[in-house]
Amino acid sequence: xxxxxxxxxxxxxxxxxxxxxxxxxxxxxxxxxxxxxxxxxxxxxxxxxxxxxxxxxxxxxxxxxxxxxxxxxxxxxxxxxxxxxxxxxxxxxxxxxxxxxxxxxxxxxxxxxxxxxxxxxxxxxxxxxxxxxxxxxxxxxxxxxxxxxxxxxxxxxxxxxxxxxxxxxxxxxxxxxxxxxxxxxxxxxxxxxxxxxxxxxxxxxxxxxxxxxxxxxxxxxxxxxxxxxxxxxxxxxxxxxxxxxxxxxxxxxxxxxxxxxxxxxxxxxxxxxxxxxx
Length: 278
Hints:
By secondary structure, this protein is an alpha/beta fold. It has helices spanning 20-29, 61-71, 86-99, 124-136, 144-151, 161-174, 216-229, 234-252, 269-276, and strands at 5-15, 33-44, 54-56, 75-80, 100-108, 113-114, 117-118, 139-140, 178-181, 190-197, 200-207.
Protein backbone atom coordinates (compact mmCIF):
# COMPACT_ATOMS: atom_id res chain seq x y z
CA UNK A 1 0.00 0.00 0.00
CA UNK A 2 1.26 3.47 -0.91
CA UNK A 3 1.33 5.34 2.41
CA UNK A 4 -0.06 8.86 2.09
CA UNK A 5 0.01 11.92 4.33
CA UNK A 6 -2.93 14.36 4.27
CA UNK A 7 -3.03 17.81 5.82
CA UNK A 8 -6.51 18.95 6.78
CA UNK A 9 -7.10 22.60 7.69
CA UNK A 10 -10.28 23.53 9.54
CA UNK A 11 -11.54 24.43 12.98
CA UNK A 12 -11.75 22.26 16.08
CA UNK A 13 -15.23 22.10 17.55
CA UNK A 14 -14.43 20.32 20.80
CA UNK A 15 -17.98 18.94 21.08
CA UNK A 16 -20.29 18.44 18.16
CA UNK A 17 -18.87 15.79 15.79
CA UNK A 18 -17.81 18.05 12.95
CA UNK A 19 -14.71 19.66 11.42
CA UNK A 20 -11.39 18.29 12.73
CA UNK A 21 -12.99 16.05 15.34
CA UNK A 22 -14.54 14.21 12.38
CA UNK A 23 -11.78 14.53 9.78
CA UNK A 24 -8.92 13.22 11.91
CA UNK A 25 -10.51 9.90 12.98
CA UNK A 26 -12.22 9.18 9.65
CA UNK A 27 -9.21 9.79 7.41
CA UNK A 28 -6.96 7.94 9.88
CA UNK A 29 -9.36 4.98 9.88
CA UNK A 30 -8.92 4.82 6.12
CA UNK A 31 -5.24 4.07 6.72
CA UNK A 32 -3.98 7.53 5.81
CA UNK A 33 -1.60 9.61 7.94
CA UNK A 34 -3.53 12.72 8.94
CA UNK A 35 -1.85 15.96 9.93
CA UNK A 36 -3.97 18.84 11.18
CA UNK A 37 -3.82 22.62 11.18
CA UNK A 38 -6.58 24.05 13.42
CA UNK A 39 -7.91 27.38 12.18
CA UNK A 40 -9.74 27.99 15.45
CA UNK A 41 -11.00 26.27 18.58
CA UNK A 42 -14.65 26.31 19.65
CA UNK A 43 -16.14 24.73 22.75
CA UNK A 44 -18.97 23.38 20.54
CA UNK A 45 -20.07 23.87 16.97
CA UNK A 46 -22.41 26.78 16.29
CA UNK A 47 -25.52 24.89 15.20
CA UNK A 48 -27.99 24.67 18.04
CA UNK A 49 -25.60 25.55 20.86
CA UNK A 50 -25.48 28.98 22.50
CA UNK A 51 -22.78 30.78 24.45
CA UNK A 52 -19.98 28.76 22.87
CA UNK A 53 -16.38 29.92 23.21
CA UNK A 54 -14.15 30.69 20.23
CA UNK A 55 -10.43 31.25 19.89
CA UNK A 56 -9.14 32.41 16.50
CA UNK A 57 -5.84 30.74 15.56
CA UNK A 58 -5.17 32.78 12.42
CA UNK A 59 -2.07 34.39 13.93
CA UNK A 60 -0.55 30.97 14.65
CA UNK A 61 -0.87 29.63 11.11
CA UNK A 62 2.11 31.42 9.44
CA UNK A 63 4.59 30.25 12.10
CA UNK A 64 3.37 26.66 11.75
CA UNK A 65 3.81 26.82 7.98
CA UNK A 66 7.28 28.34 8.40
CA UNK A 67 8.31 25.51 10.71
CA UNK A 68 7.07 22.90 8.23
CA UNK A 69 9.08 24.52 5.47
CA UNK A 70 12.18 24.55 7.69
CA UNK A 71 11.72 20.84 8.42
CA UNK A 72 11.00 20.01 4.77
CA UNK A 73 7.56 18.63 5.63
CA UNK A 74 5.35 18.04 2.58
CA UNK A 75 1.89 16.54 2.11
CA UNK A 76 0.35 14.30 -0.55
CA UNK A 77 -2.91 16.19 -0.18
CA UNK A 78 -4.22 19.36 1.42
CA UNK A 79 -7.91 19.16 2.36
CA UNK A 80 -9.71 22.21 3.70
CA UNK A 81 -13.03 22.47 5.48
CA UNK A 82 -14.57 25.35 7.43
CA UNK A 83 -12.39 28.47 7.31
CA UNK A 84 -13.28 31.50 9.37
CA UNK A 85 -12.13 34.48 7.30
CA UNK A 86 -10.80 35.69 3.97
CA UNK A 87 -7.37 36.02 5.57
CA UNK A 88 -7.41 32.33 6.46
CA UNK A 89 -8.33 31.48 2.87
CA UNK A 90 -5.28 33.43 1.68
CA UNK A 91 -3.09 31.56 4.17
CA UNK A 92 -4.47 28.21 3.03
CA UNK A 93 -3.75 29.12 -0.58
CA UNK A 94 -0.15 29.88 0.34
CA UNK A 95 0.20 26.62 2.26
CA UNK A 96 -0.99 24.75 -0.84
CA UNK A 97 1.86 26.41 -2.74
CA UNK A 98 4.58 25.71 -0.21
CA UNK A 99 3.68 22.44 1.53
CA UNK A 100 2.14 20.23 -1.18
CA UNK A 101 4.27 17.56 -2.79
CA UNK A 102 4.77 17.69 -6.54
CA UNK A 103 1.76 15.96 -8.05
CA UNK A 104 -0.20 16.29 -4.81
CA UNK A 105 -3.93 16.86 -4.65
CA UNK A 106 -5.81 19.83 -3.21
CA UNK A 107 -9.38 19.28 -2.06
CA UNK A 108 -11.64 22.12 -0.91
CA UNK A 109 -14.94 21.72 0.88
CA UNK A 110 -16.28 25.30 0.72
CA UNK A 111 -18.14 24.93 4.00
CA UNK A 112 -20.00 28.22 4.18
CA UNK A 113 -23.70 27.72 3.39
CA UNK A 114 -26.66 25.36 3.32
CA UNK A 115 -30.39 25.44 2.62
CA UNK A 116 -30.08 28.60 0.56
CA UNK A 117 -28.32 30.67 3.23
CA UNK A 118 -24.77 31.59 4.19
CA UNK A 119 -23.55 30.54 7.61
CA UNK A 120 -23.47 33.23 10.29
CA UNK A 121 -20.63 35.70 9.84
CA UNK A 122 -20.01 35.14 6.13
CA UNK A 123 -20.64 37.71 3.40
CA UNK A 124 -20.17 38.24 -0.34
CA UNK A 125 -16.48 39.08 0.13
CA UNK A 126 -15.96 35.68 1.75
CA UNK A 127 -17.88 33.95 -1.05
CA UNK A 128 -15.70 35.62 -3.68
CA UNK A 129 -12.50 34.63 -1.90
CA UNK A 130 -13.72 31.05 -1.42
CA UNK A 131 -14.56 30.86 -5.13
CA UNK A 132 -10.95 31.80 -5.89
CA UNK A 133 -9.69 29.00 -3.64
CA UNK A 134 -12.07 26.54 -5.33
CA UNK A 135 -10.81 27.63 -8.74
CA UNK A 136 -7.28 26.79 -7.59
CA UNK A 137 -8.16 23.38 -6.11
CA UNK A 138 -7.98 20.04 -7.92
CA UNK A 139 -11.27 18.84 -6.42
CA UNK A 140 -14.10 20.75 -4.76
CA UNK A 141 -16.97 19.33 -2.70
CA UNK A 142 -19.75 21.95 -2.54
CA UNK A 143 -23.42 21.48 -1.84
CA UNK A 144 -25.93 23.16 -4.15
CA UNK A 145 -26.24 26.24 -1.93
CA UNK A 146 -22.48 26.82 -1.90
CA UNK A 147 -22.25 26.26 -5.65
CA UNK A 148 -25.10 28.71 -6.18
CA UNK A 149 -23.45 31.45 -4.13
CA UNK A 150 -20.09 31.02 -5.85
CA UNK A 151 -21.50 31.03 -9.39
CA UNK A 152 -24.45 33.40 -9.07
CA UNK A 153 -26.82 30.72 -10.35
CA UNK A 154 -30.23 31.03 -8.70
CA UNK A 155 -30.69 28.63 -5.78
CA UNK A 156 -33.56 26.18 -6.28
CA UNK A 157 -35.01 23.38 -4.19
CA UNK A 158 -36.84 21.80 -7.13
CA UNK A 159 -34.91 21.26 -10.34
CA UNK A 160 -33.97 18.85 -13.09
CA UNK A 161 -30.76 17.70 -14.77
CA UNK A 162 -30.53 20.85 -16.87
CA UNK A 163 -30.33 23.01 -13.73
CA UNK A 164 -27.49 20.89 -12.34
CA UNK A 165 -25.73 21.08 -15.71
CA UNK A 166 -26.02 24.87 -15.52
CA UNK A 167 -24.38 24.89 -12.09
CA UNK A 168 -21.60 22.54 -13.21
CA UNK A 169 -20.97 24.64 -16.30
CA UNK A 170 -20.76 27.79 -14.17
CA UNK A 171 -18.34 26.12 -11.75
CA UNK A 172 -16.17 25.01 -14.66
CA UNK A 173 -16.22 28.52 -16.11
CA UNK A 174 -15.19 29.79 -12.66
CA UNK A 175 -12.11 27.57 -12.87
CA UNK A 176 -13.20 24.46 -10.97
CA UNK A 177 -11.63 21.25 -12.25
CA UNK A 178 -13.25 18.19 -10.65
CA UNK A 179 -16.55 18.81 -8.83
CA UNK A 180 -18.31 16.56 -6.32
CA UNK A 181 -21.73 18.20 -5.97
CA UNK A 182 -23.57 16.85 -2.94
CA UNK A 183 -27.26 16.73 -2.06
CA UNK A 184 -28.50 16.46 -5.63
CA UNK A 185 -32.12 15.30 -5.45
CA UNK A 186 -34.18 14.42 -8.51
CA UNK A 187 -36.97 12.40 -6.83
CA UNK A 188 -38.84 12.60 -3.54
CA UNK A 189 -37.36 9.46 -2.01
CA UNK A 190 -33.78 9.56 -3.32
CA UNK A 191 -30.79 11.88 -3.30
CA UNK A 192 -27.19 11.59 -4.37
CA UNK A 193 -23.93 13.12 -5.53
CA UNK A 194 -22.85 14.28 -8.95
CA UNK A 195 -19.26 13.83 -10.07
CA UNK A 196 -18.08 16.11 -12.86
CA UNK A 197 -14.61 15.07 -14.00
CA UNK A 198 -12.90 15.70 -17.33
CA UNK A 199 -16.15 16.91 -18.79
CA UNK A 200 -17.99 13.72 -17.82
CA UNK A 201 -21.15 13.64 -15.67
CA UNK A 202 -21.74 10.74 -13.26
CA UNK A 203 -24.46 10.40 -10.66
CA UNK A 204 -24.53 8.17 -7.61
CA UNK A 205 -28.06 7.87 -6.26
CA UNK A 206 -29.09 6.50 -2.87
CA UNK A 207 -32.14 6.58 -0.64
CA UNK A 208 -33.12 9.80 1.07
CA UNK A 209 -33.59 9.78 4.82
CA UNK A 210 -35.96 12.15 6.66
CA UNK A 211 -34.59 15.23 8.39
CA UNK A 212 -30.99 16.34 8.56
CA UNK A 213 -28.02 16.00 10.89
CA UNK A 214 -25.21 18.35 11.82
CA UNK A 215 -21.76 17.50 10.52
CA UNK A 216 -22.72 15.14 7.69
CA UNK A 217 -20.92 17.31 5.14
CA UNK A 218 -17.71 16.94 7.13
CA UNK A 219 -18.23 13.19 7.46
CA UNK A 220 -18.80 12.92 3.72
CA UNK A 221 -15.81 15.01 2.66
CA UNK A 222 -13.49 13.24 5.10
CA UNK A 223 -14.52 9.77 3.92
CA UNK A 224 -14.10 10.94 0.33
CA UNK A 225 -10.57 12.16 1.01
CA UNK A 226 -9.66 8.96 2.82
CA UNK A 227 -10.90 6.75 -0.01
CA UNK A 228 -9.23 8.89 -2.67
CA UNK A 229 -5.89 8.72 -0.87
CA UNK A 230 -6.23 4.94 -0.69
CA UNK A 231 -6.38 4.76 -4.48
CA UNK A 232 -10.11 4.72 -5.17
CA UNK A 233 -11.26 6.56 -8.29
CA UNK A 234 -12.98 9.90 -7.85
CA UNK A 235 -16.40 8.39 -8.54
CA UNK A 236 -15.83 5.35 -6.32
CA UNK A 237 -14.58 7.62 -3.53
CA UNK A 238 -17.70 9.78 -3.87
CA UNK A 239 -19.94 6.70 -3.77
CA UNK A 240 -18.15 5.15 -0.79
CA UNK A 241 -18.40 8.42 1.13
CA UNK A 242 -22.13 8.60 0.39
CA UNK A 243 -22.68 5.03 1.60
CA UNK A 244 -20.72 5.69 4.78
CA UNK A 245 -22.51 8.96 5.54
CA UNK A 246 -25.89 7.31 4.97
CA UNK A 247 -24.94 4.51 7.38
CA UNK A 248 -23.90 7.07 10.00
CA UNK A 249 -27.26 8.84 9.71
CA UNK A 250 -29.15 5.54 9.94
CA UNK A 251 -27.28 4.64 13.13
CA UNK A 252 -28.14 8.04 14.63
CA UNK A 253 -31.82 8.44 13.71
CA UNK A 254 -33.24 6.18 16.50
CA UNK A 255 -31.70 8.56 19.08
CA UNK A 256 -31.94 11.76 17.03
CA UNK A 257 -33.79 13.73 19.72
CA UNK A 258 -31.03 13.16 22.27
CA UNK A 259 -28.17 13.00 19.79
CA UNK A 260 -29.16 16.04 17.72
CA UNK A 261 -25.71 17.67 17.43
CA UNK A 262 -24.06 15.22 15.02
CA UNK A 263 -24.01 11.67 13.70
CA UNK A 264 -22.61 8.61 15.46
CA UNK A 265 -19.88 8.14 12.90
CA UNK A 266 -17.64 6.37 15.41
CA UNK A 267 -20.03 3.40 15.59
CA UNK A 268 -19.65 2.95 11.83
CA UNK A 269 -15.85 3.03 11.70
CA UNK A 270 -15.62 -0.80 11.41
CA UNK A 271 -17.84 -0.71 8.33
CA UNK A 272 -15.72 2.10 6.86
CA UNK A 273 -12.59 0.03 7.30
CA UNK A 274 -14.29 -2.87 5.53
CA UNK A 275 -15.35 -0.60 2.65
CA UNK A 276 -11.81 0.73 2.26
CA UNK A 277 -10.17 -2.69 2.38
CA UNK A 278 -12.47 -4.53 -0.05
